[in-house]
Amino acid sequence: MKTLFPKQECHVPKWFVVDATGKTLGRLATEVSKLLRGKEVSFFTPGVDQGNFVVILNAQKIEVSGKKEQQKLYYRNSRRPGGLKHETFNQLKNRMPTRIIEQAVWGMLPKGVLGRNYYRRLFVYIDSNINYFDSTEKKIQKISLENCESQNWIKPSSL
After folding, report:
1. At the N or C end, where does the chain have fewer CB atoms within 10 A?
2. Considering the entire predicted model, what is its pTM?
3. Residue 135: what pLDDT?
């Protein structure tokens, strides 16, 4: 018997919408990275792009545990002498809350060409209004993290 190998040409990506209201940052990022890579399918292959599109809403309402709001630091560098800047979780949340989720998900994706392709399919929004997105146009599955099993797999539910 021949081993079946999934082809990228045969894959039709799905769209998932995740509401980040009251969710813990790391737990949300792990589930989103699994969806971006396509690990929810039974024939997942690491070297083949079988990923999905993920839209995260209400990024400003993300939470972290413990004292991370005051102690967790985010760095950026302008590549100029003395250009290293740092800010706390609260400061970044007030200035640009989407970057918090983007950096957390980016850290959980593979580095390289395939990881960059997955990252391009991530869309993070501050609130729940998306003006240019028509939900009737594509098949969209809304995700709630309360439906997760003990293995942390997301079970999609219909809108």
Report:
1. N
2. 0.81
3. 55
